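Title: Prediction job returns without error message
Component: structure pipeline
Severity: low
Priority: P3
Assignee: unassigned

Description:
Job completed but the reporter wants confirmation the result is attached to the right record. Sequence as submitted:
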Amino acid sequence: MQCAYNFAQPTSFKSSPQVSLPRQNVTPQNTKKTVSSLSNLLLLGFFGIFTVVGVIAFLDSQFPQHQQSSTSYNQPTNITYSNTSSPEYSSQPDTSTQGSEPQSYQIVSQAFTLKAGEFRYYKFTIPKSSGSGLVSGNFIASGGADDIYVVIINETGFTNFKSGNDYKAYYTSGKVTTDDIEINLASGTYYIVFSNAYSILTPKAVNADINVEY
C-alpha cells in the first residue's frame, strides 16, 4: 500500500509443454542369449548323433578284411583272430551201425543268428579207424554287410582261438557272404566256427548245411 506497486495485475508464467516419449518394448538380453544357446546345443546334439551313426555304419561295412588263404587245405595257415565266448554245439556219429561201408553224418544243418561280435562253433570227430574224412557243404549269411568268417580248426587251434592268440586253420573262408566247403582232414577232433566278430553293430542270419564222410 505504501510502495505504489500495482498488485491488481498478476504476473503470467508460460509453462513448458510436456513431451511424451513413446514407450518401447525392451526384451531382456539374457533371455535372447538363453534361447540362442539352447538352439545351438540342440543343433550340435542332432549333428553329433547323425555323425556317430554314420561312422558306426561305415565301420561296420568297411572293417579291414582278412584275405582268403591260397594255401592247400591240407596245409594249415597261421591267422590271428579273437572273439567272444559261445556255447558248444557238438555233432557225433552213431557208431552202432559202423562197418566197412563209408559213414557220414551232419555236423550242422540249421539256421541260426549271430549277434555282433559273437561266434558259434560245432565240434565233430573223424575216428582213427577211418584214417581221414571229407568235410563238405555250404553256408550263406545275410544282414548288414551280408558277411561272416568261417574256420575249421583242431583242439589246440580252438583253445588259442578262444584266447585271441595265433592258431592254425585247416579251412578259412575269409570275410564272405557264402562259400562251399570240400576238404579232406586226417582223423581227429575238429571245430567249425562261424564268426560275426567283424561286425560292431549288426547281427547276421546264417544258414549252414555241412556234413562229414569217412
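Comment from assignee: result matches the submitted record. Residues 29-62 form the longest helix (34 residues).
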